[in-house]
Design a protein that fits this description.
Elements: H1 2-22, H2 37-55, H3 60-75, H4 77-90
Helix pairs in contact: 2-3, 2-4
């Protein structure tokens, strides 16, 4: 039990050092895990939508769920704001 406790303390120490090292390069806060969702979820659902169309999904309920999640994710105001911010940063005009 003591060995396991020492291993956990070592892991925490190692992860703290790793986080301190990479923190300046983080795009989102390390303390608010939901911040990434406006960017990562729409990308995930879009990729899943692409795959569903490529393989002609046999699970229609699952496919419809993914398509709906993708559509909803791209309507999220935080995602829209993030897309606009990225377009400005990259100097890309919105697709109309």
């Amino acid at each position: 039990m003591e060995k396991e406790a020492n291993d956990r303390v070592r892991e925490i120490t190692n992860w703290t050092e790793i986080m301190d090292e990479i923190e300046p390069n983080l795009e989102f806060s390390k303390n608010a895990p939901e911040e990434h969702m406006a960017k990562s979820y729409p990308l995930r659902f879009a990729k899943q939508t692409e795959l569903i169309k490529q393989v002609c999904a046999s699970d229609m309920n699952g496919a419809m769920n993914i398509l709906s999640l993708c559509e909803t994710a791209f309507k999220n105001p935080k995602t829209i704001a993030l897309e606009e911010k990225e377009r400005k940063k990259l100097k890309i005009n919105p697709v109309v």
